Each structure stands twice: as C-alpha cells, then as structure tokens.
Amino acid sequence: MIRPLVKRLFRLLGKSDHKIIAVYAASHRAYRDAVDYMRAEAPGFPVWLLAAAPVEPDVAGRCERVVELPNGAGLPFAVLRTLWPYWVAVNVVTFTREPGFAWMKLAPFFVFPWKLLVMNEHRDFFSGLPFGLVRHGARRLLDWVLTGLETIKDLLLGVFWKMAWTLLDPVLALTAQPWTKLSPEAPPLSDATAAEKHILLTEDAEDPRGDVGDLERLFERPDTFAAGFQPGRAGFQKDVAPRAAFRQLQPGEATAVLAPLAGTVLLDAEKLARLGGFPRARSRRCQWLLLYWKAARAGWKCYSVGAGPARVPMIPDRAFAEAEFCWRLLRERPRPQPGAGNFDTRRGSVCFHPRHQSRLRAGRRRVLIVSPYLPFPLSHGGAVRIFNLARRLSERCDLLLLTFRERYDQVEYERLASCFARVLVVDHDERRRPDPSLPEAVVQFRSRAMAAAIREAAEEYQPDLLQIEYTQLAGYREALPQAKAVLVEHDVTFFLHEQLCRSAPSARNKQECERWHRYESHWLRQYDAVALMSEEEKARAVGAGAPQQQTWVVPNGVDTERFHPIVQRVEGPPELLYVGSFRHLPNVLGFEHLRKEILPRLWQRFPELRLRVVAGPDYEKHGSSGGVDPRVQVEGFVENLAPYYARARVVVAPLTVSAGTNIKVMEALACGRPVVSTPIGCAGLGLAEGEEILVAAEADAFAGAVARLLEDPDLWQRLAERSRRAAVNRFSWQRAADRAWEMYEALWS
Q1: Contacts by 59-66 with C-beta closer than 8 Å and gap 24+?
Q2: Which of 12, 196, 558, 661 makes a 20 to 30 Å CA pair with 289?
Q3: Is residue 108 in a domain?
C-alpha cells in the first residue's frame, strides 16, 4: 500500500522506472573490478559508471553510460542531479584506500534508496547496511592502531641506533689509524702537493685491499675525481650521500657513487687543489662527504671498485657524520644546488669493468642496446639471439650494451667484450611498487637508474640508434625521445597472454592480458622500427598498431658450427630431450603437458623410455622438478648442449602456449635430431610437416608421432638428414644479421 504511493510520489518529483546500477570508483583498477563484478552478477541490468579518473574504452564499452566527475565538495550534489531521474537499484562504492577521494566515497549516501554494496581493497564485497559499515570501520580502526604501534616501535628503535652511532662515531674517528699520505685534517694543498698527478690515501700502505692499477685505470676518464676500493655494500638502505655499491662488486668492477668512503682512495691532485683541499668539519667522515659533494657539484665522478672475492659487509650507519654534513650544507649561503650530472647513476647500481672495454672506432656507426637480461651465458633463447647477432653485427658497427643483472648473476665481462665495445650493468636497487595499470613484467623492470644510464650513455657515446630488447622495456623509449629507436619484440606478448587466458581462464589472467594489449599497442606506435621473429608475428604486431612499412622480420637463427650432428653409440633405453628455461612460463606449461599427458601414453608401449629436461638456472623456483618418477631427470643450466642432443633419440617441443619462434627447435634440427612439436611450438619456422618435423596437437597424436620415430629407423634417418639440411639452408645467424643491418641502414638513410 505504502510502496506504490512512494513510487508515485517520486514519479511526480521526476523519477522514472528506468532501473540502473551505479558504480562509483576513483582508480582504473577499482572501476574495472567493480564493473566486471556487477556484469557477472547482474547481467541484465544497465551499469552506470561514475568515475573520478579517465575511463578506458574497453570498460566504457561494458557500461550503458560513463560520467566523469571532478573530485571536490560539490561531487555528491553533482551525482544526485545526474541520477535523480533514474531508479538506482544498487549503489556500488569502492573503499580501496585511494587517498584524496573522500567525496567520491560519500556520494552514494546521497542517492535514494540507499542500497549500497561496498568493495574493499581486497576486491571483496559486503553490504552497505549500518552493521556492515560499522564492522568495516572497526577493522579499519584496528589496522590503523596496529600500524601506528608498529611505526612507534620502528621510530624508537631507529632513535636508539641513531644515538648509539652518534656516540660511537667520534670515538671511531679518534681511534682510527692516521692516513699515510695526507691527513684529511690538513690545510689546503700546497703547490708542490698539487703538482702530483694522483694522491693515494690508505689506512695501510703496506697492504692495500686490491690492485691500485684498477683505481688508476679509472683516471683515464677525464671526469674522474676519486676512486676507492669497496668497503661494503649498501643494499636497499638509503643514504643522504650514497657511499657504496648496491652489491658486492666483482674484482676490478667499478661503479659510480657519490661519496666512496673507503680505506684506500686515489684522488686527482689537480682537481683536489681546485676545490681548495679538504673542507673543515668536526668529524673526518663529514670532511669526506663535503669534499665529494663539492666534486659532484663540479661535475666530477667518484668510483667504488671491487677489490677481491672476500665478502664485504653491509656499510654501517654513520648518523653523526651525515647529520653534520646536512647541517653544514643547510648553513651555506647561497643554498647549494645538486650541480652537474645525474645522481641516479651515482647510487652504486650502474657497473662496468674498465679492463674489458674496446676502443671505439672512428667513423663507425654506434648502436646502444638495452636488455632486461645478460646476453651471456647463453641460458635462454633471448640471450642466444642477442649474443649471436651481436657477434656478427660488431664487425660492421660499435655496439654498446646496457643490461639489467639479476641477483645471483656473475657478469662475464671478458666474453661480452668480444661483441660489445662498452658494457654497463644495472642492478635493481629500488623496491618495486605495484601499478595496476601496467603489466607485472613492466613494473618489474622499472628503474630510475636504467633511464638515467641510457641518457648518460647517449650523451657520452652519441649512439646513432637506440635498440630496446623485449617488450617489457618498451617504456624506456621515453629516456631518449628524439633518438632513432627500434623495438625488438622477442614475442608479441599480448598474443602469449591471450593463449594463457584461453588455456587457464581467470580474472587475473584476463586483466593481465588487457594490460599487455593496451601497453604493447601503445608502444608499437612510438618506435621508428619494430623487429619481429616471423611473418606471423609481424601480422599480429601490425594489427595491434605497428606501422606496416616500419615493421621488419629479423628471424632467429642457429649456430650450425656449434650445433652439428654427432655420431656416437648410445647404450641403454631410448631417451627423449626437452629443452626450455623454466623462467619462461610456456616452457613450464609444456613440461607439465609432457609429464602428465604424453609420457604416460608412451610408457605403456616403452616402459624403459627416459626423459631428460634442461630447465635452465634456478628451475626449482619457477616450476615442477618432475615428480618422483626416476625415468624423468631435470637439470639446470648446461653450457654445452651438444652431448645432450647426441644422446637423445627424439627431441620434443610439446608447447601448449608460445609466441615468437623457438630457438631450441632450430638447435635440435641443426644437430640432426628428429623433432616432434605441437603446431604452436614450431610456428613461424616454415618447416614441412612429415618431411622436416612431425607436428601433433593432441596428446594421443603427439605420443603416436614419438612412437613412430622410436620404432621406424628409416623414418628417423630421413627426418634427421632433412632437419639438418633445413637448419643449414634457412636458419643461419649471418642471414639474420644481414636482415638486421638492412633495417639499420633503412633507419639511417
């Protein structure tokens, strides 16, 4: 009785019977999740999105209407005016801890009939009734209290340790051995002292921590002010003035830091005299900090150098010296500015080896290559490609390498120097901050140090071309927006994630696929050229926005001299070989398909059949170790695969998800070993099925193809001969290098 009267009254006041669901959100991820949830739970209802951020087209296409509202005190009333003519069945509001959007969160409480559904930061939904809101508020309050108590505990501990070091620091300065060549407390240098080329300061002149020649070599660079042996490592702790390398350096390896407080230091005497000698300060360490700061303002650099294999400790906190340093800087008038140079490259995270550098050749073109992984050792297909192409292209131009280094990698500078005239290695020295608008792999490789190193290398070496390897680094195009640039897509990554979505549907996989498609299609348009591995990949990239005329196919290859048929007598049961680094998810999925679906079928006919898997470094972290069956043997990184191919009766590539072209298939062909692959595993190679390779999509057919090769010696021999011929005739690295050079010349013309 009352309900119809209320509805009639609201019709008189301008409301209609048109029912909608209103979603309120302040960020991309929040409104995407909320809209997806309502579309799944109430597919028949029109959804209106009221957002305080620009809305992406794919989300807007799933809504009946999108209203972008400016944040502020008037927002609730703007919402009320917009929604008044409609009957709001449910208000969906996101309480996801975005700061500064209080008015957006309050707006649903102004809209009749006050039916609320609330999404929290964990993407869970609860009723907006008073009891639910009170419970949510109580949990929030408890979180704040616990966070506050943790903050107070950290603050008290921090104060305690700061006081301890403040008391201890002067004592350490007084009890330290005097410098053997020049006291830091000495007055400004005399002309006689300044006449010396370099000044060596060491706490123990009889036994310096390393080869002083490694320090002297850095003074071949005209901007070097000081170089000292590494006293410790900084890790993720942040200093006012970075004093040490991020990690332990290899012997002779060097990195720029703002203030290398070391036991053995070599100074440029002329530059020291120009700075007026050591500045005055109460503590010796503060004198050094002030001196290095003045050198940085003058545009000079200081280096920390690895001294030996002995493990170095974390550098200690020097609160007293840093406090005095900051106090003296603040007292200067006029207020000092940072000065010349980019301080992001002086945090101890950009390393090089002065001994392993080639002379840059006059008149040669220069290409700056940026990679997320070390090109050597050859532990995965991407490294194999970069290193082999570089070996051949270095005969025509000078290559400069800027590459990330993973935590336990040892950089083989000598091997890299055979291809690259300069090698700069960047450590991840920043805590990763999640960004829901970007793919996870892109966030993983975001680094201010890398962007700064690209700009600095471009300024110093003046490269003619910037080459970015792998899609996840495409955003570094912004570091040199005016330079000619090429993006090398080792695979079309959004296509890979489309396959993952189909094989394992989930909200997370779908979101990651959408993020990749959005990110990749944007950056494909920003490059002067894009290099793909096959014609099929090129078509996908062009369909996503890459310019047709600037998109090139630079194929993968195989070193047919390194990989060649080896005739040896193999005793014992037949062996299958599967090669694929488990750091790459498709290789893990392919192994699981082989282990669970294909091998049980083969063991029914060949119970003694063995499988050997080469899964790359640290494979235990990335995927299964093969279970407990003794017939399956999984190994890590193997430098020389030739003996493994020689022992294998059949090489298998049972990939269910893949993109690009698989170098492991080409290596097996070059070794004269028959290959059985899924269609996606050999895509883009143009191999003749049944003549050069056997192809099967389903587990039954795949097992049957392997069985045919094990039982039919004539078929095995025919495929072995033709596979080797295909590798030699079509898959050489020289052919790929010629194609890359053709692309370079087109860009330079």
Answers
A1: 59/31, 59/32, 59/35, 62/35, 62/36, 63/23, 63/35, 64/20
A2: 196
A3: yes
